[in-house]
Amino acid sequence: MNTKTSLWSRFWSRGAKTPDHARYLRHQRTQTFWVFATQLLILIACLAFWEVGARLNWINPFIFSYPSKIWLQFLAMLGDGSLLHHTWITVYETLVGFLLGTFAGTVLAIVIWASPFLARVLDPYIVIFNSMPKVALGPIFIVAFGQGFLSILMMALAISVVITTIVVYTAFRDVDPNLLKLVRTYGGSRRHVFQKVVFPASLPAILSTLKVNVGLSWIGVIVGEFLVAQAGLGYLIIYGFQVFNFTLVMLALFVILIVSTVMYHAVAFFEKRTLKWKD
Amino acid sequence: MGFPTRFSAHLCLYTSEVNIMTAISFAGVYQKYITKSGETTALQEITLDIQAGEMIGLVGPSGCGKSTLLSLIAGLLVPTSGSVRVFGEKVAGPSPDRGYMFQQDYLLPWRTILDNILIGAEIAGRVTPQIRERALHLLEEMGLDGSAAKHPHQLSGGMRQRVALVRTLLTEPQIVLLDEPFSALDYQIKLQLEELVTTTLKARGITGVLVTHDLGEAVAMCDRIVVLSNHPGRIKRILDVPHNVRQRSPLAARETAEYHSLFRTIWGDLQDEY
């Protein structure tokens, strides 16, 4: 028993340099472990309550479905390939919307940085468009761009472009003026100033808008699919709702949850790798 | 910390017989700033000749236009009237032959030390293997060997300001403008860098213009000191630093009697200004 205890405590304090360091490590690591364990417990408890509650009719199983039924639906749709088909369509729309939105927003920010006149001219338009709920434009997009991919893409762009422009342009403007002066003392042009200092200095801001834009593009794409789509996860939700198949709705929600989280972390990883010089 | 302390050889070079050419010449310079709320006169009737190879100090209360004078030499500003000439040529804009050292190092954190140093050459479109070679050699000379591939955050404040010095020197300027370059450093590091900058500029025959709030620094480093008064900025007095102070390193200069008396003179001059 004694050796067992010491083995256990040795596992938690592995790599320790001194007894005090060992105590510190043990404390830190057990703390981390319990945080994770509690998180897992909450998840399991919720799923268990949902499952049991639905089976015992505490909650309406028809409206809220329950985990095992969703799992069976998942297996069935995975088997016939329809789930991957719908997921891929939504992921594709989101990726295009998010990359194009970030790119267009950044380009617009560069243009107004380059021309202070244009920046002043466009300012009220940007403010108005930014404060407007873009989802309200849905019907206009459908009429203008048709019942399909283009409307969904425009919805994703409408939601992400302006905020990207604002954040990136603010980052451009907030670059330390002494850095601009540095380039100018070497006889550098405004173009040099942008290339050598303003753009690289704003890269952290641009990359962090990428993270925001992933979320915004998901909103745009799902709303777009609600309105027009014949395929995709947003379509599955609407379809499930219309035919009263709430298991399908829940399944689509879960898939969105997982894929959007994966996408967010992929972008966060890319950001960290690009900004290696920061640490 | 492997710091170069080689004074003896070059310090005797900078007495006046070596250079009699005028490096920088201000003739009747006025500078006005116009903003929404009106206009202010930053500089009034500035006439001043700075000899080649000389180190000149600009001291005065804030708002006396010290930094404006530097910007005029650098070509970042155009005088409202009067003329600024560098080696006889009217200043038409910034150029790599006039180097500028800032209050802080302003190294670009995303670039390595070597790439930071090369920025001037990059802007001029002249990054050659020879320039890289010279950059590495200069780093070594400043006691920074082995740091070329590092990033700025890995270096201490003093090392970073030495990197900034290398960056300034790499374009081989004839004039170096020093805008309180030591004000953000610890006192000890500041003294070391004063010595390094003085020896380096003198050894290369570079003309230096030092703006500083630290009167002691001005006396210890410079050949002449221009005292400015404010609102508007005018030249109040130009003082020669005695030979005995000039021939010593900035640290040793602080121990001479002449250093203290000159310090008190400037102190007295500036008392009237505040």
From TrEMBL, chain A:
Top-level division of the source organism's lineage: Bacteria
InterPro entries: MetI-like (IPR000515), MetI-like_sf (IPR035906)
Any one biological process term the GO annotation gives: transmembrane transport
Transmembrane segments: 33-50, 95-119, 139-172, 216-241, 248-270
One CC-aspect GO term: plasma membrane
Gene3D superfamilies the record matches: MetI-like (1.10.3720.10)
Keywords recorded for this protein, A-Z: Cell membrane, Membrane, Transmembrane, Transmembrane helix, Transport
Localisation: Cell membrane
One Pfam family here: BPD_transp_1
Membrane-related topology note: Multi-pass membrane protein
CDD domains, A to Z: TM_PBP2
Chief place where the protein resides: membrane
Residue intervals of the ABC transmembrane type-1 domain: 83-268
Family recorded in the similarity comment: Belongs to the binding-protein-dependent transport system permease family.
Protein name according to UniProt: NitT/TauT family transport system permease protein
UniProtKB/TrEMBL annotation, chain B:
CDD domains (alphabetical): ABC_NrtD_SsuB_transporters (cd03293)
Keyword Ribonucleoprotein: no
Domain ABC transporter: 24-255
SMART domains: AAA (SM00382)
One GO MF term: ATP hydrolysis activity
Keyword Signal attributed: no
Keywords assigned by UniProt, alphabetized: ATP-binding, Nucleotide-binding, Transport
InterPro entries: AAA+_ATPase (IPR003593), ABC_transporter-like_ATP-bd (IPR003439), ABC_transporter-like_CS (IPR017871), ABC_transporter_ATP-bind (IPR050166), P-loop_NTPase (IPR027417)
Domain of life where this protein originates: Bacteria
Stretches that traverse the bilayer: none
Name of the protein: NitT/TauT family transport system ATP-binding protein
Organism encoding this protein: Tumebacillus permanentifrigoris
